[in-house]
Design goal:
With 578 residues, the chain is an alpha/beta fold. It contains 17 helices and 16 strands. The two termini are 18 Å apart. The protein binds alpha-D-glucopyranose (GLC). Belongs to the glycosyl hydrolase 13 family.
């Protein structure tokens, strides 16, 4: 059976249908697969590149676009369909690039605009799609607009692009409401006027250097129309929309109740999350994407509960995908996993969209480490550090991480991978406080470690400076010793390695069209194991602590290598047939 995808076309045909963006809508591009190029995303495996930690071409210690360019072939050989790039735009980097000061250029530390154009072009030549990050909730405080707002007067058009309010109390020194920043501390900062006197307050749901736009202002809409078109004109295949559920705030900006203040879970209902009006933005953007053909996509980063609310982002005429954070947040436990899988397929299915699946990204503890903790739920987004109450056992972590991925990649829909998970990288726990960069760490005075532990530059070559990340020894966060053993060159070609497991899973997933398949649960021999069928592949996963007998059939993939004759604890197998 041939894998589907444009890479199956002849080179000339490929560049016609993809590189130059003329699509062959309505034509099946593979005899074995029903999807058309316009539907590529429905079962795509999309690999997240976090540019500052992927590959550094010039020795600054910070990754860059040329570094990514140099490894596109490695991503192709891994077997993914698309690459999502976290922000590489000009930014003071107070929140690792999610504080954008210019939406239509490249930060000099990552390269120049021509590097981005070349990267998009080369990826397309290889048959890889490119999705870029769009950060519409807030800009950097260094954005020209915010600087203009600071220099303008209350009530001016320049202030109206952001959320400025007078303070409460006689002197206006009490913030306009009691909202708190996601990173800790108040969500309002008072400005100092040119004459040195205190002025209005502005809202920032994240760091004080990330002022929120006012999305009731038409000018903001027009600005982002231009940003979308700018990158679509350069050939990007879509956008991952940062905090997609936060753009609209409840009118009047009401105070949080005590219960809302106490609930710091990412999906908690608050007057700045998931307001119905936010969907108007995505219906509008969907129209802009459609001008460029049917194959450009929007993916929502929306920490919204329950799944039915999340699925509203992918209704027809809105976005295409939403990260399934309910799945990411599920503990390593058979009932919990089965429930969230069922609920996801139902909620997204009812909205007419495929589900996505994701275990790791740049905001959460790497799943390899997370799933080996007794407390798997309260660490998002607290992070792990030297004084955390527990530390994952490395062997258990590796085993569970592999089993979890093998389970995820057998599910129908689209899957997101985060750079380094294909190497089985653990969360880095022992980062010295002085080197931590995440604003979460600093805004909570170290109470929450935050996200640096999953952002450490990844290893390519064991016996090279910075494990092949950088030609100098520089790395913006220190790499632990264990990254040497886990470097890509150590794993390549070794059938027991996590890298080869990922390659096998991705190839079989394509061969058996699991991404467009149907899941049906089957009775398993033990309540601690899950068993389901997708197409002609049977998948079993053991969450318990004793082995379970395997059904007959040929094992085509096993998260433990070599495959034992039984289903071992923390072990997933794919069996052909049944
Ligand atoms: C999203 C990003 C995160 C960032 C935040 C503010 O959650 O994934 O990294 O800090 O938005 O932009």
């Amino acid at each position: 059976m041939r894998p589907h995808g444009l890479e199956q076309n002849q080179p000339s045909e490929r560049s016609r249908s993809f590189g130059q963006r003329t699509r062959v809508v309505g034509m099946s591009n593979s005899s074995s697969h029903p999807l058309r190029p316009a539907d590529w995303w429905q079962d795509a495996v999309i690999y997240q590149v976090y540019p500052r930690s992927f590959a550094d071409s010039n020795g600054t210690g910070l990754g860059d676009l040329k570094g990514i360019q140099g490894h596109l072939g490695d991503l192709k050989s891994l077997g993914v369909d698309a690459v999502w790039l976290s922000p590489f735009y000009p930014s003071p980097q107070n929140d690792a690039g999610y504080d954008v000061s210019d939406y239509t250029d490249v930060d000099p530390s990552f390269g120049v605009l021509a590097d981005a154009e070349k990267l998009i072009f080369s990826a397309h030549e290889l048959g890889l799609r490119i999705i870029v990050d769009l950060v519409p909730n807030h800009s950097s405080s260094e954005h020209r607009w915010f600087q203009e707002a600071l220099a303008s007067t209350p009530g001016s058009n320049a202030r109206a692009r952001y959320i400025f309010r007078d303070g409460l109390g006689e002197d206006g020194d009490i913030p306009p409401n009691n909202w708190e920043s996601v990173f800790g501390g108040p969500a309002w900062t008072r400005i100092t006027q040119a004459d040195g006197s205190p002025g209005q307050w502005y809202l920032h749901l994240f760091d004080s250097s990330q002022p929120d736009f006012d999305w009731t202002n038409q000018e903001v809409w027009e600005h982002f129309d231009g940003v979308l078109r700018f990158w679509l004109d350069r050939g990007v295949d879509g956008f991952r929309v940062d905090v997609a559920h936060s753009l609209m705030k409840e009118p009047g900006l009401p105070d949080l109740s005590d219960a809302q203040l106490a609930d710091r879970s990412p999906g908690a209902a608050k007057p700045f999350w998931d307001q119905d009006a936010v969907h108007d933005v995505y219906r509008h953007w969907s129209g802009i994407l459609a001008e460029y053909g049917e194959d450009r996509i929007l993916c929502a980063e929306a920490w919204v509960w329950p799944l039915e609310r999340m699925a509203r982002y992918v209704r027809p005429g809105e976005m295409h995908q939403a990260f399934n954070f309910a799945y990411l947040s599920a503990p390593w436990q058979p009932e919990a996993l089965r429930d969230v899988i069922d609920e996801s397929l139902k909620a997204f299915g009812d909205a007419g969209a495929p589900s996505t699946w994701v275990l790791s990204n740049h905001d959460v503890v790497r799943h390899t480490s997370r799933l080996a903790l007794a407390d798997q739920e309260s660490i998002v987004p607290g992070g792990l550090g030297p004084n955390s109450p527990e530390r994952p056992d490395p062997a258990l972590a590796t085993r569970r991480g592999r089993a979890a991925t093998a389970l995820m990649l057998a599910l129908p829909g689209s899957a997101y991978l985060y750079q380094g998970e294909e190497l089985g990288l653990p969360e880095v726990i022992d980062i010295p406080d002085a080197l931590r960069e995440d604003p979460t760490f600093h805004r909570t005075n170290g109470e929450r470690y935050g996200r640096d532990g999953c952002r450490v530059p990844i290893p390519w070559v064991k016996d090279a400076p910075a494990f092949g990340f950088s030609p100098s020894r520089e790395t913006w966060l220190p790499q632990p010793e264990v990254f040497g053993e886990l470097a890509r060159d150590q794993q390549e070609g070794d059938p027991s390695s996590t890298l080869e497991l990922y390659k096998t899973l991705l190839q079989l997933r394509k061969e058996h069209a699991l991404g467009t398949g149907q899941l049906s649960w089957q009775e398993s021999a033990d309540p601690q194991a899950l068993r389901f069928q997708n197409g002609n592949v049977t998948v079993l996963c053991n969450f318990g602590n004793h082995p379970v007998a395997l059904p007959d059939g040929k094992i085509i993939a096993s998260s433990i290598w070599p495959a034992p004759s039984e289903l071992a604890p923390d072990h997933t197998v794919w069996i052909k047939g049944h």
